[in-house]
Amino acid sequence: MISQHQKPLMSGFGAKTEPSEILENINLADKTVIITGGYSGIGLETTKAIKANGARVLIPAKRLDVATKELSGIIPREDIFEMDLADLSSVKSFTDSFNSANNTLDILINNAGIMACPETRVYKNWESQFAVNQIGHFVLTKELMNSMKNAKKSRLVSLSSSAHQISAIRWDDVHFNNAPYEKWAAYGQSKTASSLLAIEFDSQMKEFGGRGFSVHPGGILTPLQRHLANEEMVALGWKKEDGTLSDMAAKFFKSPSQGSSTTLWCATSSMLENMGGVFCENCDVAERKVNLDESMTRFFGVADWAVDSDDARKLWVETEKMIKNN
């Protein structure tokens, strides 16, 4: 089932809206916010914007030294914590620590992720992109849900991507145990999962005032592309051979700060007060995309498989099984 709300609201914002426009007249002084990957790329811009508007921001980080350096002067050192999404004991250690020290969590932003990386196996032979982008964030989210219930009104923002259109969930072979590994299919599947996580969170939490949103931040060049050689980005149409942006990318790609704006809109907008369980882009709810483009230049719209509530519930159950069985 697809939410009746999966259609644009005509928010008045757009692809190149800046954080200052989204957060104008919004006071976050009484809010506690957790942002994974909040020290790099659009995550860092998200942290800066939310912190500047008064919230307490906590950053769990795999690279603690890098996070401490990048966030110096932005948030206190005591609000930066070590956590590796590929290590579930690390995730549980962070959530236990947070829950013991804090009664409420107002906003959780699952921003961290890896993209199109070489085949890597983590934990019990899990494919790394699904493990980091989905399973790690699933455990983080689930362990923080009671604190979010206590907040009375809370929001989850889960960062997906237009790449979700590459692949639905590969129900029979999620971890590429039976088929050859394909990095883009693995990434696409993980970003479908990121969206479905928000859909099921919303279903379970709305009676407690919690709402969930998935976000395509837009085309942005950040450290997320670290596994892609320049020639591959040329083939994708993102760059020219000299390493500069292609004409297409120059027109459609966003700055990192603009890339954080849809996340900020989903986390704070009063337009979303009584709705959730939708996929958003360009600071608005996205349109459903009926005809999926075969190329990698698919930048807009959401495939039904990323917002289907039945699939969202099924993935929640299947992810729980993976964790329990391992």
Automatic annotation (TrEMBL):
Pfam families: adh_short. GO terms for molecular function: oxidoreductase activity. Keywords: Oxidoreductase. Gene3D superfamilies: NAD(P)-binding Rossmann-like Domain (3.40.50.720). InterPro entries: NAD(P)-bd_dom_sf (IPR036291), SDR_fam (IPR002347). The keyword Oxidoreductase applies. Belongs to the short-chain dehydrogenases/reductases (SDR) family. PANTHER family: NAD(P)-BINDING ROSSMANN-FOLD SUPERFAMILY PROTEIN, RETINOL DEHYDROGENASE. This is SDR family NAD(P)-dependent oxidoreductase. The lineage of its organism: Bacteria, Pseudomonadati, Pseudomonadota, Gammaproteobacteria, SAR86 cluster.
